[in-house]
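Tokens as discussed.
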């Protein structure tokens, strides 16, 4: 997946970003890339999860780029604390070296909007920030599925989730398409319905699966066996 999105419309304030990574050179490189864009602004940096949590609370950024493995408090615990204690938390993108990192799966379950590989090119990084800021999730469908399968491997087949019976046929279709990484705009085109109708269906899916966002809904669907049978 190569996240791409147009810059924010002229006149809007820049998206405010906090960088959390224990490597100073990585933070510097990210800052240079992001601040080359007029609609993006890095407002703070943290070298650990312990630094990131109070910094994010005080600055209230739009997006946090959160390294998964950091000293003191790792990116998973930092993400959990941020999302649990802020009334309007930022969108968190966890950054990792490997797609199959078990830490990534736990971070997504904790509420991160998605993950980005450290080897991503500048356009992917910039697109990811804009994508999550507008409310979409940064899904790498094959990787998310692989993480879910690995997490449940060796255990008994999951029982059908109770929420599955509450989905309408259209909502079930929306969830399956969400798992392929489609944005709301792409869902609208695929289903032949208006953007507001898509938003209504997505909101219903999130409510019925008990999910904070699209990523958690897709993970819940994999864990419950819903997508294993249908996709």
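Sequence:
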């Amino acid at each position: 997946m190569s996240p791409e999105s147009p810059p924010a419309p002229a006149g809007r304030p820049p998206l405010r970003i906090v960088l959390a990574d224990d490597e100073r050179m990585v933070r510097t490189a990210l800052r240079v890339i992001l601040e080359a864009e007029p609609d993006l602004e890095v407002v703070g940096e943290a070298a650990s999860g312990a630094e990131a949590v109070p910094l994010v609370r005080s600055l209230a950024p739009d997006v946090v780029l959160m390294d998964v493995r950091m000293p003191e408090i790792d990116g998973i615990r930092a993400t959990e604390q941020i999302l649990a204690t802020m009334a309007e938390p930022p969108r968190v993108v966890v950054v990792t070296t490997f797609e199959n990192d078990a830490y990534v799966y736990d971070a997504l379950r904790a509420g991160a909007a998605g993950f980005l590989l450290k080897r991503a090119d500048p356009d992917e990084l910039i697109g990811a920030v804009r994508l999550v800021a507008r409310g979409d999730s940064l899904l790498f469908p094959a990787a998310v599925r692989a993480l879910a399968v690995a997490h449940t491997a060796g255990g008994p087949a999951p029982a059908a989730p109770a929420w599955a019976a509450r989905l309408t046929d259209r909502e079930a279709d929306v969830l399956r398409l969400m798992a392929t990484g489609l944005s709301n705009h792409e869902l609208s085109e695929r289903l032949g319905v208006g953007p507001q109708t898509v938003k209504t269906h997505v909101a219903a899916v999130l409510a019925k699966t008990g999910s904070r966002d699209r990523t958690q809904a897709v993970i819940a669907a994999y864990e419950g066996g819903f997508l294993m049978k249908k996709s």
